[in-house]
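Bench notes, afternoon.
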Amino acid sequence: MTAGHPAPGPEERESVEQPIEISPRAGGPVTARSPQQWKGSHTLSAELLQVIGFVPVTDRRTTVMVLPTHLPHADQRRKAATAAATLRAIGHPVRLARQLEDPQAEPELSLPLLGRALRERFAHLGGDAHSDEVARTLLELSAPANGILTVVADALHAAEWWWSGAEHPVDHMPATQRLTQLADQLRDIAQEVSRLRADLALMDRHRDITSEWPPHRNPAIAATAQAALHTAARRPARHR
């Protein structure tokens, strides 16, 4: 492992018996195949391959990872070798076609996706979590201006806008329209989470007042929950 590529932690290291195969398809792109269909212990591998540049393609219930065909041969070889080094670094056996081998290839583990940071941030939630922490987490998800779901919806809208530009092919339209639909659904989900957060906060407050629940597990968070709900309700209606 070279400098700049931190060793994977215990949660990243996977142990599997069947190797992932990476090889050039006859007359086609470099393809990575998972005996587990990129599920179970192979989900992290699928994520890392996509960061490197592979794209998931599903055909007849079989999902493979492929490199875009427009990439020059040298780039395909480099990315395939990087993928093999990365998967081996997290404990996966890999069968890499001989013509794609590169002894100088290094694993690409230095840029984890944003979701990992979010997972670590929310990892403390559980049976012993304070209700303030749970309520704060729901607010992080559903806040109408900077909540995670809201930001993701904005990102989907931005992607739709970019791909809908005049310089892009018309056949992108079904996909871009679907991005808009998904963004709207995420906003609806955010509002629903906000409503549920308010309901739970009000129930907690009632139990706190009536001593039906240990007070230390039910702080008075109803006011902030209601404020979040009212803010979401005042959000301007979208033009569909």
